[in-house]
Amino acid sequence: NLGALQRSKSDYTNATLSYNEALKIGKILAQTNPETYLPVVATTLNNLGNLQTSKNDYTNAVLSYNEALKIRRALAKTNPKIYLPFEAKTLNSIGVLQSDNRDYANAELFFYRALKIWKTLAQTNPSTYLQDVAIILNNLGVLQRNRNDYTNAELSFNEALKTYRTLAQTNPEKFLPDVVVTLINLGVLFQENIIEKQQSLKH
To answer: What is the pLDDT of residue 1?
Structure first.
């Protein structure tokens, strides 16, 4: 769509105008035909949140993501097969945003909520959703490492590593690089943990 094109060209001003116009029209249409247009409204809000994040407009990005999440959560209650993945994606987006703002406690909550959904979906469709499980676990590991929560970070990275190794068995070209990145994350974690222990001994 036009907003996405303008965003890809870093024309954030016009992209914002396009998304806001699409959002206004979508909300009007959703009043008489919510089944068709509420998903469109939620997608537009999510895209607007992505744009606002790119502009470092975190305050409005949170508002956009939360409004999208509210709609997607309601849609998922009536049609979980279609809309649960979208709910999980918005939860992850909010988690990433809060993590970037160093609001680690809330970011962790949103990552865990997304993880719960991805794990549920992966039980019946692992080929589609296991990689999302691994991505969230890796996000959690990075966040927990940033909080100096080395115990939980190690658990998250190890579970992500196990998941990526499983995926790499059937698609090594795609997932072996993720195995390598996760191993590096574990290495950095162990190194930081050792350094912190050495510094604490000095004091």
So the answer is: 62
Q: What angle do CA 183, 107, 175 make, to 5 degrees?
A: 30
**Per-residue pLDDT tens for 158-198?**
999 999 999 999 999 999 999 999 999 999 998 887 766 66
Cα distances from 182 to residues 21, 35, 50, 122, 164, in angstroms, run 41, 41, 25, 20, 9
**Pure H helices in the chain:** 2-8, 12-32, 34-54, 58-78, 80-100, 104-124, 126-146, 150-170, 172-202
Q: What is the mean pLDDT of residues 25-36?
A: 95
CA-CA distances (angstroms) from residue 168 to 112, 129, 137, 160, 186? 24, 14, 16, 12, 18
Residue 194 pLDDT: 74
Buried/exposed 59-93: b ≥16 CB within 10 Å, e otherwise? eebbebbebbbebbbebbeeeeeebbbbbbbbbbb
Q: CA 159 to CA 200: how far, in whole Å?
A: 28
Closest Cα partner for 70 from 42, 37, 28? 42
pLDDT at 196: 67
Residue 57 is given by DSSP the state -
By the 10 Å C-beta count (0-12 exposed, 13-18 middle, 19+ buried), 127 is classed as exposed
**In this structure, what token pair is assigned to residue 203?**
């004091």
The string over 99-113, giving b where at least 16 C-beta atoms fall within 10 Å of a residue's C-beta and e elsewhere, is: beeebbeebbebbeb
